[in-house]
Every structure is written in C-alpha cells, then in structure tokens.
Predict the 3D structure of the following.
Amino acid sequence: AEAGLGGGSSNAAAALVGAATLWGVGVEDERVQEVASRLGADVSFFLKGGCARLSGKGDVFEAQLEPRSGFVLLVRPDAGVSTGKAYAAFDEDPVLPGSGYLSSIAALDAAADVSLYNNLEKAACSVTPVVAEVLEWGRAAAGEENVVLCGSGSAVCCIFDSYQAACEASVEARKHEWWTRVTSFSPLGAAIVE
C-alpha cells in the first residue's frame, strides 16, 4: 500500500477478468474496458499487461513496446505516499514533461530505449521526504539513468544488468531498514490460470 506499485489496480483488474469470465464476456469488450477506466487510471493497463506506451491519464493504449530485460530492485522506505496527497501536491506545482521528451518516446519500439521519467517525483518527495533519500541512494547504486519513482511513490525502481548486482544493492538498501525486492521484467497481465 502507498508504494506506487499498482497493487489495488492489479487486484481490480484480476477481479474484472474473473467477473468477465463468469459472465461470458471477453476482457477486450468495451464495457469491461469502460469499467476498468472508471475504477482507476492504470486498471486498463493491468487488464492488458505487457509493456506499452499509454497516453491520457495512463488509460489510453498507444503502442505495444518490446519489453526490456534486466533485473529490478524495488526499494520502499518505511513510509508510504498517499496517491491523493501526491496528486494534490502535483496540482499545486505541476511538473510536465517537455514536448521533446514526449515526441522522442512516441517513435520508440523498445522499452529499453525509453528514458526513465516520472513527473510525480517532486510531488512524492514533498509529501514523503524520505523518498528523495531513496532516489538519491538508488541513483548512486544503479546510475542516474536506471532509477525511477514507481507510480506516485514511495517505492523506487532501480534497474541492474545482473541479478548479482541487484542482490548486492538490496543488501545495502536493507541497511537503511528499507523494504526491498529483487525481480525481473515480465510481460504478464491479469489472466485466468487453469
């Protein structure tokens, strides 16, 4: 909770997949997509899964991207970020991506080519200042270009080329008493497993 990892949204997507299956309605049905959009900006993404470029409030599918490879270290401080508070802080002092950034990613086909960027970073740090400390630590551990705030925070994603490097960084992060998890990229979405 309050980590920016989409826990509630992925749960909502899984519930929608289950309900649609019970009712004999396809997940791609526009009614299911409409409900997903009303539940939350990223619920539609979790219905589809994979690696995609989205627009709007994060609910309009633009293009499928080739997933990136590598290992991810998720680091979460002992404090969360309220999504509502983060968006309120953003509304008070919005940080918008430049048109150059948006046009540069519009032409890309692979996630590995997309420069990591989250315009909620400043807002999340103002709501929960320890997030700035985690971001700074992550950038020192993984490199500036390999670290990004997850959603509205408080978790931070650090990308490493090897599992060993991610695990070593995890050990270091735990010395700060931060929660960590080493994982890898996955193209999975909500699905029925038989």
